[in-house]
Amino acid sequence: MDSTPSxxxxxPFEMVSGxxxxxxxxxxxxxxxxxxxxxxNHMTSRxxxxxAAAGRHDQILGAINLDRExxxxxxxxxxxxxxxxxxxxxxxxxxLLPPGDVPTVTRRLRQVLETGEAHxxxxxxxxxxxxxxxxxxxxxxxxxxPHEGLTVSVIAMATRLHLYAxxxxxxxxxxxxxxxxxxxxxxxxxxxVAAVDLDYAVWTGEKATGHRQERIxxxxxxxxxxxxxxxxxxxxxxxxxxxASRLLAQAVLRDDAPQAIVLPERETIERVLGSPQAIRALVxxxxxxxxxxxxxxxxxxxxxxxxxxxxxxxxxxPFHDNELLDLQELVARTAHHVDLARQHQREHTxxxxxxxxxxxxxxxxxxxIASVYQPTTPDSAGVGGDWVNSFPLPDGxxxxxxxxxxxxxxxxxxxMGQLSIETRALLSAGLAPDxxxxxxxxxxxxLDEPDTGLAAGYSxxxxxxxxxxxxxxxxxxxxxxxxxxxxxxxxxxGRAAPLPxxxxxxxxxxxxxxxxxxxxxxxxxxxSLLALYTDGLVxxxxxxxxxxxxxxxxxxxxxxxxxxxxxxxRRVVSALAxxxxxxxxxxxxxxxxxYRKQDTATWRLAARDDAPARARTQASALLRRWxxxxxxxxxxxxxxxxxxxxxxxxxxGPITVRLIAKDHSLLCEVGxxxxxxxxxxxxxxxxxxxxxxxxxxxxxxxWGVRWTNTGKVVWAEIPR
Length: 720
Prior knowledge:
- This protein is of the alpha+beta class.
- It is built from 19 helices and 25 strands.
- The strands form five sheets. A five-stranded antiparallel beta sheet has the order 2-1-5-4-3, with helices on both faces. It has a five-stranded antiparallel beta sheet with strand order 7-6-10-9-8, sandwiched between helices. A five-stranded antiparallel beta sheet has the order 11-20-19-16-17, with helices on one face.
- The longest helix has 38 residues, at 321-358.
């Protein structure tokens, strides 16, 4: 069906103008057809009535027709509230705008002309001939064929409707800056400049309390209109000078009761502020001005002042009592929105603080580490459950962990923190990566049970995790994954590829469907680069996930071995992260360094009675080459002797002895095929008898056990 309007189809201007007859006594439609000069005389000769200045009108609709050069061709602004708007035929529409708004509105008018898409319901100020301004809701509509140009409709709302619309608009965001900005834009209907200053504690998410007036600290959260301000004037994000904060607090907390105040002219303002610095910071114009200050009060016992809203207008347009009542009502209605945004800001800060705390620290002499984390949005609803961590294990290895917890906000953050702490504890206790994932799998299932879950309505089932252990002596990585994307390994010669990891379901899989986790081992020689990441970095709804992983592989393969790793991580994220982000983005880069060959030694011994003596002989020669001090050498030899003796007594198969020279200590490791766990008892005996572990405990700074596929390794660290 052909939807093109016929030549007789009314234009948007005629349709809007025809609707005015229902709102304007005397018939708006007839005015629309009046000669242009008659309209011009009517529009320019009348003055706005007093009740119009007070804003007490029913909702009124007006229409202005523009040609392609943005000149006025026809207008219908017959309602009293529009009186004083100089909308002459042939004049440019931008003449009705404040100078600071001309570029923005002109750009929108041109955009509607070019695209034919309407721009609806923008809050805009229009200038009257006497210099006052009228706040309207402005919509830009393209003309219907065969007409050309634009129709601009304006709506001047009654005070009650404006209050309702303002409260509705302010409550749409949980971002504290946007909430304050919406409040300031709504307050602009009563003045020329509106500002919102919040207690610094509110701005940062903490709850404002009964500060003493001399200690209050205010920060500007919002300011409208958006224009160039004189030097020294406080703009959003700036703290008010201390004396200005104290004066505002004293003004709105008179007799310890929050109340609105009005300073009607410049002389009163200067007398109250006193300080030239405070005047420059708070007074927006040099010309005479008055201001109404309305406290944002949280209904509590006693009432808590969250901040101050300020509405500035010319001194020759004083505030009426009914206007002050309207201002107080609007601010009172929306103060709880500011407090909700404060609570959300606090949650956002807590979640981010937890995630930042989990971010890896820099590496050590055996590994170089860098990480980048970018949340999706500035509010806590967009802060997801991505987490990444790295930490040295007591036995000299380094753990790299990356995970993605299902969901957003505090529920995901709580689960993320619990899984991260549990992972570190289990790895430090010597468990293998697959055993750790098995425990995490059970934890996620428990957290989802109704009686033990963290939060009603939140489920972490399907969360993913990947654990990598790097051995700086053997230069190998052991990896286990629970549904996570495969890490990318770049060899020292620049070849890069995702590690071939066997796919596995995420954590918390239904018990009957659970599969055993697998440990994959790969060589990672010195100079190798390992990239661990979450799906937010590589996922694109319009392309397979393999393409995103391929782009990451290609990008990290170009990393030079000498490039600073933290700068490299930021560069990779900038190149690959989608815009706009749909999910959190996390990247961990680890460059393998390892121990120097001359700083380690490994021996393989048969499990015979002479094994302790042979181990002491070989270790003694090595310690002399390392120029180890006499008392340290004696302690190392005694620890090795006790550990090897215990391995011969309780294990079968070959014994492996490994010595590692660290900066401030020596690490001794004895591996065997036994599966018994040595324990230190209060009576000084081993689990199966003897005094070996008691001696080891006295001579070392720490010791422990880790489990392998073939048995166990008992390690001990001796200070140098």
